[in-house]
Specification:
heterodimer; A: 301 residues; alpha/beta; 4-stranded parallel beta sheet; B: 155 residues; 4-stranded antiparallel beta sheet
Chain lengths: 301, 155
């Protein structure tokens, strides 16, 4: 099997990433070839937090491979509401499904869950920690657009709490990429991620202002700055406004700049950008299906 | 031998462990990290801020009737990296243990990240990987560099 569990992007080597992306490419080119691959298999969906794209694309991936899903449903309708621990929940559902996809508000939840079960755990987001399957579809999209080496990639927005950012930053250390992190001081990368990037010898710079670096970028990965991170509403609006992409900002962008976003967006990318050749975020979301099909193909026995 | 004279401020023990060269002011944390709170009945003597040629000020901890294991010594290294540990039998030093930093400590520290899964009500012990300069939660990856003793798990 490719991996026992997928918990963080840190556990992925360059070869691991390429295995998934290559498989995803094959599946996208010829979906018929894998029809029936998961015949009779069930994927357990445990989403302790809301999700649209991640949950639906995993469900789509499982069904397109001929498998099915068993869904815990919302926390309100489950035994979690009665105080059941995560450790107990995963040990129960392990008996129903061949692999578990877990999203949970606590950091480290997937790692802990993996200690209690024998079926594969796939981390679909653990608080402000990691989101490795998002990263794989991000890398797939980047590779389709610009390749994965010799790139300059800007990552902007909430770098402190953004789990998609943390996983992407880790994974990019496997490639010849200059990473430019653009955020207000209060939302800089957390110490733990900066430590890992340093240990990996990554080529990293941090900026508070996008304009200085925008003309040099091949890819700009935008994330949402969340209102609840700021005690003061005015401060939120002032900061969010500085990290918004619209036609005026893009006047200084390279012609072939790809703009990505894990979605959902609120207003950090103006709708007018959707119609430009820069916009890749819907294509990026669609890539979630072949990439997650590839993962399930590789991880389920 | 001024240091020997100063050590005499704390009485000799017959059988047990002497933890010497603990950084000044850390003796109570040493006891906490070893889970020694007096309830086990051991006789414990403390010398705090004793003048030391090597450290300026040091603490000394003497525990009667208890020999520290190598794994307990490993945990000690987090807050007392310069400590020397002498196992005493019949007033004689029979073994000197070296303080070595372990790769991981389990169940000793509590993660300061309130969003860490170990802070939720789960049946799991804390685990920290030991870095060159600090420790790191094996679950949420939070790095603690300063005041590690403040994060001792409640016994």
């Amino acid at each position: 099997m490719w991996k026992d569990h997928l918990l963080t992007a840190k556990q992925l080597s360059r070869g691991d990433v390429e295995t998934v992306l290559d498989r995803a490419g094959e599946i996208a080119a010829d979906p018929e070839a894998v029809r029936g691959r998961l015949d009779g298999r069930l994927l357990g969906l445990l989403f302790f937090e809301p999700s649209t794209r991640t949950k639906m694309s995993f469900e789509t991936a499982a069904k397109r491979l001929g498998g099915g899903v068993v869904d815990m449903g919302s926390v309100e309708s489950s035994s979690v509401k009665k105080g059941e621990s995560l450790a107990d929940t995963v040990r129960v559902i392990e008996g129903y499904a061949d692999a578990l996809v877990l999203r949970h508000p606590s950091q480290g939840a997937a790692t802990m869950a993996s200690e209690f079960v024998d079926v594969p755990i796939i981390n679909a987001g653990d608080g402000a920690g990691h989101h490795p399957t998002q990263t794989l579809l991000d890398l797939y999209t980047i590779r389709e657009t610009a390749g994965l080496d010799g790139l300059s990639i800007g990552i902007m927005g909430d770098l402190k709490y953004g789990r998609t950012v943390h996983s992407l930053a880790h994974a990019l250390t496997n490639f010849d990429v200059h990473q430019h992190f653009v955020s207000p001081e209060s939302l800089r990368l957390p110490r733990s991620v900066r430590y890992d990037l340093h240990q990996a010898g990554a080529n990293v710079r941090e900026h508070e202002d996008l304009s200085a670096v925008l003309p040099t970028l091949d890819v700009l990965y935008v994330t949402r700055i969340q209102r609840e991170r700021f005690p003061d509403e005015n401060e939120y609006h002032a900061i969010a406004g500085e990290y918004r992409i619209d036609a005026d900002v893009l006047a200084d962008a390279p012609e072939d700049l790809a703009i990505m976003h894990p979605l959902p967006r609120v207003d950090e990318i103006a709708p007018e950008v959707d119609e430009t050749a820069h916009a890749r975020y819907f294509e990026q979301a669609h890539n979630g299906v072949p990439v997650r099909m590839a993962l399930l193909d590789l991880m389920l026995p | 031998m001024t240091e020997t004279n100063h050590e005499l401020r704390v009485s000799k023990i017959r059988n047990g462990t002497v933890i010497d060269h603990v950084a000044g002011g850390q003796a109570l944390n040493v006891l906490a990290i070893l889970g020694i709170d007096g309830s086990g009945g051991e006789t414990v003597s403390l010398g705090m801020n004793v003048p030391s040629d090597r450290l300026g000020r040091k603490d000394v901890v003497k525990v009667e009737g208890r020999e520290l294991s190598q794994s307990e010594v490993a945990v000690l290294s987090l807050i007392a990296p310069d400590a020397t540990i002498n196992i005493i039998r019949e007033y004689e030093v029979v073994e000197k243990l070296r303080v070595e930093r372990p790769d991981r400590v389990v169940g000793v520290l509590a993660c300061p990240n309130r969003n860490c899964i170990t802070a939720a009500d789960e049946p799991v012990e804390s685990k920290f990987d030991v870095l060159e300069n600090g420790v790191r939660c094996a679950y949420c990856e939070t790095i603690v560099r300063e005041s590690i003793a403040e994060h001792l798990a409640a016994n």
